[in-house]
Amino acid sequence: MNTIENIHNQTIIVQTSYHPTPHLETEMEVIERLLEQNNTIYWLICKKDFKVCFNNPTHEKWTCNVCVSRVKAGIKEVYKNIKNPDKLKVIEYADYLDYNEYTNNALLKFEFNSLSDLKKYKFNGYDVGMATASSLVSFTRNHLPKLEEHSKFIENGIKTGAYLFEAFSNIASLVKPNLVILFNGRFIENRPLLRVCQQNKINYVTHERGGKLDTFLFRVNSIPHSIETVSQEMEMLWETATDDKEDIGKRFYTNRIQRVEDAWYSFTKEQQEGRLPESFNHIEGKKVVTIFNSSLDEYEGLEGFGPYFYENDNLGIKQIAESLSQHENIKLYLRIHPNLKGLDNAQNDFIKNELEPLEQLEIIGAQDSVDTYALINKSDIIIVFGSTVGAEAAFAGKNVILLGKAAYEKLNCFYIPKSHEETIEAITSNDFKFPNIDASETLKYGYWNENFGNKYQNYQPINIAKGTYKGKKIKANPVIRELRRLFNR
């Protein structure tokens, strides 16, 4: 696992870009701990430079003001705590490149025919289009947003990304950092730094939430969503464990069944324990196959994610359902991911218009109180496109077909077909032999979830979105917060 303790006597740039708890507090902790190890820190902050960002996608004035104020409070707190203030330097983008001067003269493109075209757009070798698309999908919660409705977002996103790429190139050439630390690496405001580091062979770290509320991810030269890195961490943690790893691995699954919110929100806590679809009373003797879909917006902006051979989850589900239409001995369910509840987006439109009319497919809505875990236990085959449910079903001893990239895909407890035809063969053939479930394999994933990340020393979580830093809540100026509340109202 990557830790902070072995970083000494280096020149480091830390970017602050996402101020909500616990991310600002994570950066504060990282900075304080690195300063204790005789590192020189350049703390790169935003003074309304981002015209689009994850926290404030529409560049709303008072949200910017609150963010700037809270970061200022964080800086003040760190300076109060450290013994070597000469080693900490707060810097701003505008000191290295003027936004208006640069964006007015840069030959940037803002009009695209499709999301695919936007993703392909690069500027000076930087994939500014992919970063903009990723942020747009997250903002709209729609994997296929209508570009014409978000032209201003796209223009501001491309301007922001191109500006930050050039500004940080200037900063890196002058500061000459040994290491750059940034949040996540996926969004408009972070991806430019990631790409500058990769192009110039500068070591970098991405930080995010850890596996528990009291931990944070600190990943060297990789991003939080790297399947390859996660697989390596999983094996390393399991092989080097000195505690009761089997029991800890099991705890991850039992906590999820019990709807424990110890790292992120539980999507199943509103479901009624033990409840099954009414149709279960009329399907005796049939093979029960349940598909669990994913919310497409969660991975649309990420490279290397998605189904192995289907274009996307929606089209894969439709093709599977159509191929099973003549198999009356099979009952096919689709459990909609609870995270899609209430969304007006392209995925839900497809489900309503293309999947609901299919007589051979029974859909369990995102808001339905049917119990996911009861459904797993009563199904003969579980099909997933990367959802954590795949690992949970394998832990329960179920036959699982994995159709898309997943953090647990290298574990030996799933069947991964190579084509649609192989998928249908696995579902329909009574002679098909699924891989034997190796219980210890599923426990590796559970153990990793319970253990990845670094323990906080200064930040104390209260819940998922609240906590204190050395016993103090880091807040924006109360007048600014009240003004934002009034203007928003």
From TrEMBL:
GO terms for biological process: polysaccharide biosynthetic process; polysaccharide transport. This is Capsule polysaccharide biosynthesis protein.
